[in-house]
Specification:
Shape: globular
Strand content: 5-15%
Distance between the termini: 27 Å
Structural class: mainly alpha
Largest sheet: 2 strands, parallel
Helix content: 40-55%
Strand order of the largest sheet: 1-2
Oligomer: single chain
Number of helices: 8
Radius of gyration: 18 Å
Length: 174
């Protein structure tokens, strides 16, 4: 699954099912910013402006390795069954999502706030509760989002032959 796949699914839902002919703006941070960029390239007449925040035109190798590692953690959960589970494999999913936690705050936050081992453990416990109780996620959904994010390159949009600059210059949204 690619960012183009989920953008095309979202486009079809919004346009065909909800009957919305255009968007004033597509706004998103991180993977949502990737979505706004891909929407502007794949459906240029649909969105008037985009506001991608904290996103990129392609996923760098370091991030690709981390995201692929997160997919591996999910897949190693004994309840994963190749994604054909009946009960959400929450252990592998929670461990994988904990890999995102360091990206949520600045390095200075960690140095200045988590000043003891107890504070680090409490912080980790809090985020584990977020991923498992407060805002539980579906393992398949996260797995395929990680895949699309890891492999994202706006230049891979059909017709641009991997050329990121020409792809970005084709964006008509402001």
């Amino acid at each position: 699954i690619t960012a183009r796949d989920w953008v095309n699914a979202d486009y079809k839902l919004v346009k065909d099912y909800l009957g919305i002919d255009h968007l004033v703006a597509a706004i998103g941070d991180s993977i949502g910013g990737i979505t706004s960029l891909q929407l502007a390239v794949s459906h240029p007449d649909f969105v008037k402006s985009i506001i991608p925040i904290g996103s990129t035109t392609h996923t760098n190798p370091r991030t690709q390795l981390i995201l692929r590692h997160m997919k591996d953690i999910i897949a190693l959960d004994p309840g994963w069954y190749g994604g054909m589970y009946e009960q959400n494999p929450s252990t592998g999913l929670a461990l994988a999502l904990m890999e995102l936690t360091p990206w949520l705050y600045s390095p200075a936050f960690y140095v200045e706030t988590l000043t003891t081992s107890e504070k680090v453990r409490n912080f980790q416990s809090f985020w584990n509760r977020v991923w498992t109780v407060i805002a539980p996620q579906d393992a398949r959904d996260i797995y395929y989002q990680l895949e699309g994010w890891a492999e994202f390159n706006i230049g891979d949009t059909p017709g641009f032959n991997g050329d990121i600059k020409s792809t970005l210059s084709a964006i008509t949204a402001k």
